[in-house]
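Good day; I would like, with your permission, to put a structural problem before you. A protein sequence and the structure tokens that stand for its backbone fold form the material at issue. Thank you for your consideration; the sequence and its tokens are set out here:
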Amino acid sequence: MFEAIQPFLRTLQQVEPTSIPFANIISHSGSLDSLKIEPPRYARVPWFRYNLQCLARPGLNIPNLNANDETSVAVARQNLVRSSGLDPSQADAMIGALAREVL
């Protein structure tokens, strides 16, 4: 079994710790409840917005989602339930997947 994970372990020894994806989550000590999970890196760009209009029923509008703004995230959840064919749990899952780096 060691042979199967040896390349992974060797890479961990040689790589810069800050370049490991999710390093802040992997190395977090204590309760994960206090860990703030950011939006994906591409969604952190100030001008980036998700266009959710493709999920709207005909004739209804859904505003764009700014994953960096908690108000925008809450409004997107409400609008998805009201203006799309998604039920509340599906809308929560969709917004959670778009607004958080890991879920």
Q: What stands out?
A: The chain has a mean pLDDT of 86. The chain has four helices and no strands.
